[in-house]
C-alpha cells in the first residue's frame, strides 16, 4: 500500500514539475489547441505499441514526436489555416486510434485508462520514464530558455539578434510532445493539456517575471496533484480528473479572492 501511493504521488509531482514551465509557454504563445492535437494523437501511439509489440511509453513518445514534426512542417506550407490543420489532425488521430484498437484481437485495452488517466496505477517503470523524460525536458528547457523567451516576445526581433527561430520553435514543439507522452498515464489523453494550461494560467496573476511564472505553475501543479490524490482516495473519484478539478479550484481562488477582498 505504501509503494502504491508513493509511486502515484511521485509520478504526479514529476509531471507537474515539468508541465509548469512548458505550460507557461503554451499560455504565452496561445498553443493550447496544438497541445490538444498532440494529446489526441497519443492514443494512436498506444495502438501502435500493441500492434508492433514494443514498449508502450516508447511508442507514445515516438508517435507524438513524429506528429509534432509533421505539424511544424505542414504549418510552413501554409496550404491550410493552422487552426483547421490542428482540428483535422487532432480528431483524425484520436479516431484512428479508437478504430485501430477495435481490431486488436486477443488484447484487452482499457480505453478509460488512456482517455482519463490512471494515476493510482503508476508503477516503477512508469516512474522511471517520468524521471528520465522529465530530466531531459528540464535540461533542454534550461539550455534554450533565453531563445524561447526571445521568440515568444517577438520572433522577428529574435531573428535579428541571431536566434534560430525555426529550430527553437521546433524544440518547443518537441518538448511539449514529450511531456504529453509522459503525462498520458497521469491524467489521460483528454486532460493532458489542462495540467499544463490551468496551473500556468493561475500562476500568471501571481508573477512579475517569466521565471516566477514557471516556478509558480509547477508549485500550483504539485498542490493540485497532492489534493487530487487525497480527494480521489477519500471520495473514490477518478484520480486524473480530480487532479484537474483541484487545479481549477486553485485557479478560481487566485482570480476571485483578490476581487472579494478588494470589495470588502
From TrEMBL:
Q: Mind telling me which CDD domains this protein's record contains?
A: TM_ABC_iron-siderophores_like (cd06550)
Name the source's superkingdom. Answer: Bacteria
Tell me which SUPFAM superfamilies the record gives.
ABC transporter involved in vitamin B12 uptake, BtuC (SSF81345)
The protein's UniProt keywords, in alphabetical order, are: Cell inner membrane, Cell membrane, Ion transport, Membrane, Transmembrane, Transmembrane helix, Transport, Zinc, Zinc transport
Location(s) in or outside the cell:
Cell inner membrane; Cell membrane
GO BP = response to zinc ion; transmembrane transport; zinc ion transport
Which membrane topology term applies here? Multi-pass membrane protein
Q: Which Pfam families does the entry link to?
A: ABC-3
Q: Which InterPro entries does the protein's record reference?
A: ABC_BtuC-like (IPR037294), ABC_TroCD (IPR001626)
Q: Give Gene Ontology CC terms.
A: ATP-binding cassette (ABC) transporter complex
Segments spanning the bilayer are 6-28, 40-73, 85-107, 119-141, 170-201, 213-233, 239-257
The record's family statement is: Belongs to the ABC-3 integral membrane protein family.
Q: Which NCBIfam families match?
A: PRK09543.1 (NF007089)
State its role: Involved in the high-affinity zinc uptake transport system.
* Annotated protein name in UniProt: High-affinity zinc uptake system membrane protein ZnuB
Taxonomic path: Bacteria, Pseudomonadati, Pseudomonadota, Gammaproteobacteria, Oceanospirillales
Amino acid at each position: 500500500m505504501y509503494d502504491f501511493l508513493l509511486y502515484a504521488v511521485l509520478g504526479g509531482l514529476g509531471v507537474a514539475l515539468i508541465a509548469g514551465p512548458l505550460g507557461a509557454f503554451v499560455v504565452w504563445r496561445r498553443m493550447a489547441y496544438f497541445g490538444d492535437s498532440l494529446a489526441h494523437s497519443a492514443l494512436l501511439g498506444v495502438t501502435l505499441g500493441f500492434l508492433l509489440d514494443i514498449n508502450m511509453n516508447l511508442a507514445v513518445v515516438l508517435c507524438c514526436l513524429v506528429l509534432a514534426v509533421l505539424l511544424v512542417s505542414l504549418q510552413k506550407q501554409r496550404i491550410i489555416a493552422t487552426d483547421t490543420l490542428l482540428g483535422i489532425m487532432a480528431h483524425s488521430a484520436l479516431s484512428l486510434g479508437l478504430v485501430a484498437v477495435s481490431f486488436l484481437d486477443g488484447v484487452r485495452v482499457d480505453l478509460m485508462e488512456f482517455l482519463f488517466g490512471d494515476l493510482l496505477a503508476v508503477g516503477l517503470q512508469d516512474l522511471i520514464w517520468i524521471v528520465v523524460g522529465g530530466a531531459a525536458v528540464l535540461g533542454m528547457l534550461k539550455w534554450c530558455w533565453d531563445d524561447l523567451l526571445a521568440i515568444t516576445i517577438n520572433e522577428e526581433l529574435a531573428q535579428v539578434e541571431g536566434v534560430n527561430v525555426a529550430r527553437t520553435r521546433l524544440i518547443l514543439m518537441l518538448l511539449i510532445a514529450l511531456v504529453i507522452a509522459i503525462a498520458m498515464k497521469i491524467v489521460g489523453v483528454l486532460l493532458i493539456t489542462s495540467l499544463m494550461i490551468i496551473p500556468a494560467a493561475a500562476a500568471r496573476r501571481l508573477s512579475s517575471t517569466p521565471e516566477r511564472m514557471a516556478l509558480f505553475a509547477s508549485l500550483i501543479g504539485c498542490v493540485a496533484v497532492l489534493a487530487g490524490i487525497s480527494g480521489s482516495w477519500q471520495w473514490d473519484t477518478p484520480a486524473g480528473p480530480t487532479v484537474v478539478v483541484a487545479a481549477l479550484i486553485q485557479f478560481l481562488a487566485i482570480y476571485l479572492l483578490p476581487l472579494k477582498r478588494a470589495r470588502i
